[in-house]
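Methods, example record. To illustrate the input and output format used throughout this study, we show the complete record for phosphoenolpyruvate mutase. The sequence lines were provided to the predictor; the line carrying structure tokens was produced by it.
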Amino acid sequence: MNAREPAFISASRSARLRQMLVSHELEFMMEAHNGLSARIVREAGFKAIWGSGLAISAQFGVRDNNEASWTQVVDTLEFMADASDLPILLDGDTGYGNFNNVRRLVRKLEQRGIAGVCIEDKQFPKTNSFINGEAQPLADMDEFCGKIKAGKDSQSDENFSIVARVEALIAGWGMDEALRRAEAYRQAGADAILIHSKLSRPDEILEFAREWAGRAPLVIVPTKYYSTPTEVFREAGISTVIWANHLIRAATSAMQAVAKDIHASETLVNVEDSIAAVNEIFRLQDADEYSEAEDRYLSSGRAAGAAIVLAASRGKGLEAVTEDRPKVMLPIAGKPLLRWLVDAFKKQSVNDITVVGGYRADAIDTAGIKLVVNERHAHTGELASLACAVGTLAGDTVVSYGDLLFRSYILRDLVESEAAFSVVVDSSLTDPENASVRDFAWCSAADDRGLFGNKVTLRHVSSGQEATSAIASQTPHGRWVGLLNVRDTGRERLQAVLGKLQARPDFDSLDMPTLLNALIEAGEAIEVQYVHGHWRGVNDLEDFRRAGDFAHAQAPFAAAGGSKTNDASGAMQ
Ligand code: SPV
Ligand code: MG
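The corresponding predicted structure is encoded as:
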């Protein structure tokens, strides 16, 4: 869009095209042939688009002989008009029939927001002017004048333009015939005359312009006399220059080179850096607007949920089975632990999943996830891993340990929580004597099924690092399972608290409970969702061995081979 001319831009497309035709400046139109190229033309700064018959037929892979039907052309124009707010002048060939077809064409073009049409005085079906032009029969001049009149009479927008294209020079009928026809078309109501030439020098065009003497705007297509300095057209009083086919030709040579290279080399590495990035295609498609609209209009509440999965560790006590892979890639009932977790997230529409890898991150299956790597994983803890991903945090996000299996309702209830921060605490685990278990949780109230629905908040979680706190002398209310839900409303506060912890000299050794406790100290209410079993962490070989049974029990009956009963009793841990 041309920001220099706001008044021009706010006018309708047809008014802008008409303004270009009648202005005393030399104006330019660039060819486009689909929505993408129409957008590219606009971004390059052009003020209008030429809907080239040659380019549109070529992108369909058919000949410029009216092989594409006129409705197929009009459908293509609709995509172009949607993709770009520029005025479009359609190359309407001969008008696709007689005066009646022109009337209908004009009405349909107006309905699709097309600013004007150019019709040429040849016979339907036409052939491109550069293919044996002299052999092509011209239309009867009076009949063509009738088409122009019919088109002008049927437009409902006074600014819709009809450009009459004179093919007399192409067909070898001479300058006098070209001038005679141009004058007749002007009198029939044409808003501009396109005078076409297939010579490599502009001489006949310039002679025509001299004789024409500004009776109506003149449009030219210098495809063949391309070496003429543009200043020459300006001095000749030309209204508009059409660069008629250069984007389809540019696309063609780029596609030929890339296809040839990939075929010969059987790899993408040679071409990747020289072609548009996939993200550039997304940008041209306006993919961001779609994401924003999704946030506004999708009612599911968590349509664009995100997750950060901490998966950097090899797994203490699991060294025997993690030589070649991190803990999260251990196979549980036939699929990696991480895949169980990812599938569980996807089931709750938590689709934007960032996994923070570390130890043997190269072995992580990245299908459906984004992988970031904590390069310092060997010397750092959970918060250092979280910090690797937290910069990209957007929207509602679940932070999860990577070694979890759980029943689906646990995640569903967590992500449905409206609280800025919420965690899952298992009230079946309250024995702090078990030294191998950390993450004990003290809450504002014990799990009490009778008080179902009451809000309970987290008061403290035992951390691997901290000195025993006063609260730890009391019996805990359960164990934090490793799931934290951060609503969009809490995101910046979480980032701020994490930022403060990052300033501590011992940050590299800090774990997730330290973050939860820091949030609590900062005055945040962390809502507790109690569960009673129904989940597993994989912390040692014994957990690993038993996780298969648990996982089988989560699978549909068919996949689980009927072993559903393992999980029927409740507490799993
Ligand atoms: C087109 O772009 O389809 C034209 C111009 O009609 S030309 O191909 O030069 O005839
Ligand atoms: Mg054409």
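Annotations derived from this record:
The first strand starts at residue 27 and ends at 32.
Residues 5-244 form a domain with the TIM Barrel fold (CATH 3.20.20.60).
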